[in-house]
Amino acid sequence: MIKNSLVRELEGLIGQTNVLIDEVDLYSYAYDAAVEKPVSPDIVLTPEKTDDLGKIISLLNEEKIPTIIRGAGTNLSGGTIPIKKGAVIVTTKLNRILEINCNDMYAVVEPGVVTAKFASVVDKNGLFYPPDPASQNVSTLGGNVSENAGGLRGLKYGVTKDYVMGMEFYDTMGNLIKTGSKTVKCATGLNLSALMVGSEGTLGVINKIILKLIPKPTFSKAMMVTYNDMLNASESVSAIISNKILPATLEFLDNFTIRAVEDYCKIGLPIDAATILLIEVDGNYEEAVEDEARKVMAICEKLNGSVKIANNIEEKNKLWEARRVALAALSRVKPTVILEDATVKRSVIPEMVKLVIDVSKKYNVLIGTFGHAGDGNLHPTILTDRRDSEEMKRVSKAIDEIFLKTIELDGTLSGEHGIGIAKSKYFKAEVGLSTVDFSNRLKQTFDPNNILNADKFLKVI
Q: How far apart are CA 153 and CA 155, in angstroms?
């Protein structure tokens, strides 16, 4: 429970309307996009000024109150569920784009800026911010940094960590920590920015972020490739990469997902196809883009793929709509959707795809698979009903087998969703006990009272 005196102090600091203690209001912050048990916090704080973050966290730390830092709550790992109750600090009102520097190609933002809004403003300034998580219309940049979010363009352009030049964050004592720079190169001190990216809110409270921007590609070519055999499609992915071609996007949808998407938005997908690949190549020279597209087409056709080129922007947008609505379409099939992001080396994608098919049959569970095939980041999506306890036992076994096989293939538990609650039990299996211990000692140094997102994948020991 939160002391009344602390509630009054917080109200005096950030205003009564920004301090929520009503049970109905609190439940809105009891869950995120993961399929995990909701837990209501004791208090929710929605500051309007970044300067208040340090004061808030200092007060909460003095009282040793468990604290979650939350953006839009779109994460898929249970990372923002307040399992120890306590406080949730919501950053969505800290949503100013402070600077866009076109000459030096960087931006400075507050953590609550919505990803898609930021990318749109950058685009209007003639530049490009590539990270594009599926939740970009809702997700915030602070959350993207904390989860190291990826997206469809991760294959060629990288993920959030590749665009963080520096940041400011508060430690648990309320001290403002500055790391990185607006300069292209910076070798001053420890690279604390890299440590904060992907830390899932366990080490500090982000105040400002400096993000790298790049020139927009001038030309692009998009295509849909249809296959009668899923393994041919996954072999095409490996062949494209092994031929030293890096498409801007290289996405994968299986038949189950194709049918769900077509039923959802009626855009003319080939519902009898075993698999489709959605591919786009881009660049600043038209001839080079056309040459890359021809090479990709030849590889796909050699592996029995049927290629359809998008001839205009409307056709291209339809292709990417098919991919972006995949999760929404699948979520209509059954009440509970468990979206995973096991990630493997691109050379073993065919083996991973076969595993998912076999697991689906073995445990008699529905799995629709789509994802960023070009960087090995597949999204096996399990469709179930959490009220069916017998089925959920089979689902749990299926997930165990998928993740343990992923680790066996030298893959990783998460390409872009984080560990949170959902995958914490596998963490040691991937990195080893020594790494877990080292990570926990870092956590203890940054957060000795263990208040920040406590007892998820990092714990004070």
A: 6
